[in-house]
Amino acid sequence: MMENTIEFTISEENRNVKHESIITKEYVHNVIGERRVDIHKGDCGKVLVIAGSKGMAGAAVLTATGAYRAGAGLVRVSIDEELFTIVQIGIKEATCVPRTASLGDLSQYDVIAAGPGLGDEPQNVEIIRHILDTFAGTVVIDADGLNAIAKAVREEAGNKADLLKSIRMTKANIIMTPHVGEARRLLGWSHEDFEKSGREKAARQIAKMYGAVAVMKGHETIVATADGKTYINTTGNAGMATGGSGDVLTGIIAGLAGQGLTAEDAAISGVFVHGLAGDMGAEALSQYSLMAGDIAAFTSLAMKKVTSE
């Protein structure tokens, strides 16, 4: 009964926005597909989550949970050793490695999710740069990972070590998931610039500037690609404006990418599943009471809905 009350609609504001596609359940169903009967965990993607710090270990738990709920085969969390216990109590299925592992050999992973809850640490830029220089899989960058990039791009413009050049030249497939504030910092826009241009233009500009898939979070999340395509999401509700919701989204996108979806399809499917999980959670709990952990939990039912119907 709960599922029958959820409708996928788009606001009048976005009806006239130039876009390639409205994201629908049918599209996501076809993209994710069915699992082979003989599949094993190694086929479902090995995800490294570089997230969490003292006081924000929950960000790592939410990201890892999102990845597992979306179907990832193995999830490993890179975090300070003093926080191992918190993470492993929060999600028993994940394993932990020290943060220093983020600067080591990354070739064993299919996907890296970096940024949630990292805090404002100097090593963040070093970690991002190492990923860009050495990793060839899909990288989902959120929160403090995006802030580190924005800061470095401003400070290093014109230098040989310019991080923007590294992003454009990397062999990795980059997905950026900014909210409005992070988008402004990535673009160097003022509040007035953003209000004048709007979210759709911001998403397109981030995708073009960084050569990435941009996920412009908010009401009717917009996905933009470097070649100029845009997609508007039809799921989600105001109850998802809660701390940690974006961490879950980062994990969901990473989990889907690990199963072989392209960066574009992982982003498109991820925002739909994330929003649907929020809709199902709000239907059961109310928008007022919805928390990020609920969104992570309802991701299971959202995945069931998009893959089995």
Explain what you see.
This protein has 309 residues and is an alpha/beta fold. Helices cover 47% and strands 12% of the residues. It has 13 helices and ten strands. Strands 1-10-9-8-7-6-5-2-3-4 form a ten-stranded mixed sheet, sandwiched between helices. A hairpin with a 5-residue loop joins strand 9 (222-224) and strand 10 (230-232). Helix 3 (57-69) packs across helix 11, helix 8 (180-187) crosses helix 10 and helix 11 runs parallel beside helix 13 (292-308). The two termini are 15 Å apart.
| Residue-averaged pLDDT | 94
Find the structural class using helix and strand composition.
Answer: alpha/beta
- Can you summarize the main beta sheet? 10 strands, mixed
Distance between the termini: 15 Å
In spatial order, strands of the major sheet run 1-10-9-8-7-6-5-2-3-4
Number of domains: 1
Helix content: 40-55%
Give the number of DSSP strands. Answer: 10
Shape field: globular
| Cα-atom radius of gyration | 18 Å
Order of helices and strands: HEHEHEHEEHEHHEHHHEEEHHH
Proportion of beta-strand residues = 5-15%
Uncertain segments of ≥5 residues (pLDDT<50)? 1-5
Write the CATH architecture name.
3-Layer(aba) Sandwich
Helical stretch count?
13
CATH topology: UDP-N-acetylmuramoyl-L-alanine:D-glutamate ligase
CATH class call: Alpha Beta
Q: What's the name of the CATH homologous superfamily?
A: Ribokinase
